[in-house]
Structure formats: C-alpha cells, structure tokens
Amino acid sequence: MEFKLKEKGVRVDLPYGVLDVSGDDDFGYRPYQLMVASIAGCSASVFMKILDKQRITFEDLVLQTEVKRNPDEANRIEKIKLHYVIKGKNLSDEKLYKNLAVAHKNCSMVRSVEDSITIEESLETIQLSL
C-alpha cells in the first residue's frame, strides 16, 4: 500500500476504493475507527465462516462495539467490547459461545493486538418463533 499526503491526512487508493485517513472527522476516517473496524470486521467474518461450516443458520447478525481509550496515554485504545446480537430459530447460546471462542483464536486482527488491547466478546440471541 502506498499512502499519499493530502490536506490534514493521508490517502490510499485500494482495489475497493479510495480511503482517506485523518485525525479530523471532516477529512477522513480517524485511525482509531479503522482499528476498531478492522478488529470487528475480522472477528465477524471469522465467526460467520465458523457458523456456516457448522450449518448454524441465522436471520440477522449485528455487531455492536464499545471502545475505551486512555487520554493520559496518547488516547490509545485500551479495550474494545464486541457484542454480537444474533436473530434466528433454535439458536444455542452454548454453541454460539464456543464458536465465538474459536473465532477469537483465529482472527488475525484480534491476535495482532491481544498483548496491548483487551478484546471482550459477548453475545445475545433473539429467538424467532418457528
């Protein structure tokens, strides 16, 4: 990747599109947003692949995030909470939590930051009637 300087940030041209990065919301995505998106996106992708392999079907999956930053240490990210809300029929919390643990172990972004950022995962199920 090649990042080019632009007004108040940098820009990279990727196959999917142009990405503007800036510490100012008016000029691009903020670096911490991209970090959280990277971790959430990777975690959700791995989790969904595992559910698919186990033939666990669901109607919808939403991933909510909460970020704790430390203003005394360059506003670094200390903790990211990933909360999965899964809608479906006959969902087993036990199976879902086991699969979430496997996803945690196999997500490259989570593993990349595990010694510096606490990643906390939880889930809730919304059971749809048969």
UniProtKB/TrEMBL annotation:
InterPro entries on file: KH_dom-like_a/b (IPR015946), OsmC/Ohr_fam (IPR003718), OsmC/Ohrsf (IPR036102)
Name of protein: Putative OsmC-like protein
Organism: Paraliobacillus ryukyuensis
Superkingdom per UniProt: Bacteria
